[in-house]
């Protein structure tokens, strides 16, 4: 038994719980002060009784608010790379160690670039609400995917989460912080309308055969971010509500080589990277082999998930 208490105490020391009155709590306190002054001025015993009753309600609410957050333990998972302007889904395992359910849990996010200073209230208003957990069952562990916004490609340091609650009656706000201490790779946003360039080391007749191969329907697969919009199966979506992408077969031996010169006519670097990213996803969906030539890097022709990640990583870190 002593060992269990020791382990629980060690887990509770992972974070410090803060508690302050909410805006409603401040109004509630001001109302009590005004009522107390009136009761003193008119020597009204019932007014004193009502003031003391309201103070006791706030005192009990303070203990419930603190206990609602204090018995919560957490474990962070590893975030996977995503495309720019697509939210990072951070796995967060929340464990309720209390025999009572935890209610009204709100999760907010603060980017690391906005965090400065040690005082926890300095950046309090800059947190972005990203997730709500209405109730966590007693003595249970649940997995939650916390969406974290992204704005630019490259490595993004995941900042800090704030877990807070105004349970039970909204007068007090209890919260604690989680420093994520991770960074995630953000791919360029797949976007562009340019057609695929001609296949590598092929004459015009072979290139024509290649284009015909892209039109050979091979089936459907679940929609993935970056799939070409013209390949979406709209009729199937209207029929059963499931978003699918048409998959096309290509002749064996086809090899694509995406060059920086192929997108030289685009206005800026980000547009070029987005177009190359779109081509890579299109070729990967079609099952083709492809390579990538950047100004200071050349990736040989290959295929597969690791090759796709390596190409997208090179685009994400270009110029950094």
From TrEMBL:
Keywords: Membrane, Transmembrane, Transmembrane helix. The chain crosses the membrane at residues 21-40. It comes from the Bacteria. This is Uncharacterized protein. The lineage of its organism: Bacteria, Pseudomonadati, Pseudomonadota, Gammaproteobacteria, Thiotrichales.
